[in-house]
Amino acid sequence: MRSEHSEQKAVRSEMRRMKRFGKREALLGFLFAMPWILGFLLLTAFPLFYSLYLSFTNATTSSTTETFKGFANYKAIVTDANFWLSVKNTIFFVLLSVPLNLLFSLLLALLLHAKVLGRKMFRALYYIPTLVTIVAVVYLWQQLLGSSGVVNQLLGVFGIQGPDWFHDYSWATPGLALMGMWSVGGTVVIFLSSLTDVPKQLYEAVEMDGGGNFRKFVHVTLPAISPIVFYNLLTATIAAFQVFVQPMLMTGGDYNTNYLGYYVYQTGFTVGRQGYASAISWLMLIIMGVFIALIQYARKRWAVYND
Question: Is the pLDDT of residue 182 over 90?
Answer without folding.
Answer: no
